[in-house]
Q: What sequence folds into this?
């Protein structure tokens, strides 16, 4: 029998089915199909640690099986999104590790991005304040990004003597904002302003800080009310078609659409249209 992981308990060993999950580094809440991850070390601008990388990677991997989660929102607490890897808890220890241990770590950080890209749910980032380093890569791995005028996004790996090529940055960022702009940010490590991010296509919209949580939840709710199987197919095609020719992409989309035409939601949409009603999608 196929087993499914519940939205209120996507990591069975760590999540409480009723109260949600409150960890050292982030909180998980779930309501009406929308799961919300809140990075929760506000006193340090929500940095990541070895443990939080591991927890987040496992959560996004588990979401592949959480059929009641339709959309995910990722945000930070205390007026900031994420300041990246914790200097003392990650960078310091890394200088003492062997090459094998370092590679194990960098592969795990890349796995987080891979799991975010591969989970079937649309992922929306709500970004205020600092969004730097690995935090900027988490934002980039999301499907959509809402920001505030205060958002400052920096891929600052060169600031600590590393390449700008980290967690898929050299593949994802040029596709988002263009090769030249990505090159500038990855070589210099300077912060991209919110206005630049909006103009360059990094942000889908900017909202005032007080309005950002509600706007992110409203967007997530609208997606959760849509045809979620079809949304997952859209996300899959957006990922896979990067490596296809136009002819391959057209054929892949023909197959994807034929599959979606077999869903109950496709029939519900037609019946609602015929009855001049708004369709109620159920995700099957």
A:
């Amino acid at each position: 029998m196929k087993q499914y992981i519940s939205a209120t308990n996507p990591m069975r060993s760590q999540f409480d089915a009723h109260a949600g999950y409150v960890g050292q580094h982030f909180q998980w809440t779930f309501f009406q199909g929308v799961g919300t991850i809140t990075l929760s070390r506000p006193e340090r601008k929500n940095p990541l640690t070895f443990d939080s990388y591991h927890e987040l990677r496992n959560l996004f991997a588990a979401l592949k099986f959480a059929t009641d989660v339709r959309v995910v929102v990722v945000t930070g607490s205390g007026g900031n999104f994420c300041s990246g890897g914790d200097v003392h808890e990650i960078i310091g220890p890394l200088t003492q590790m062997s090459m094998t241990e370092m590679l194990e770590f960098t592969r795990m950080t890349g796995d987080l991005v891979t799991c975010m890209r591969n989970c079937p749910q649309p992922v929306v980032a709500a970004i205020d304040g600092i969004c730097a380093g690995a935090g900027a890569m988490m934002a980039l791995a999301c499907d959509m990004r809402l920001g505030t005028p205060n958002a400052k996004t920096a891929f600052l790996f060169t600031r600590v003597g590393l390449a700008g090529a980290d967690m898929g940055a050299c593949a994802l960022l040029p596709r988002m904002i263009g090769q030249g702009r990505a090159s500038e940010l990855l070589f210099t490590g300077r912060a991209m302003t919110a206005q630049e991010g909006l103009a360059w296509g990094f942000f889908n919209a900017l909202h005032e800080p007080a309005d950002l949580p509600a706007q992110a939840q409203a967007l997530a709710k609208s997606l959760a009310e849509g045809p979620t199987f079809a949304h997952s197919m859209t996300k899959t095609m957006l990922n896979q078609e990067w490596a296809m020719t136009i002819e391959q992409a057209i054929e892949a989309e023909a197959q994807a659409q034929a599959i979606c035409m077999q869903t109950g939601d496709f029939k519900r949409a037609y019946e609602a249209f015929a009855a001049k009603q708004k369709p109620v999608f159920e995700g099957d």
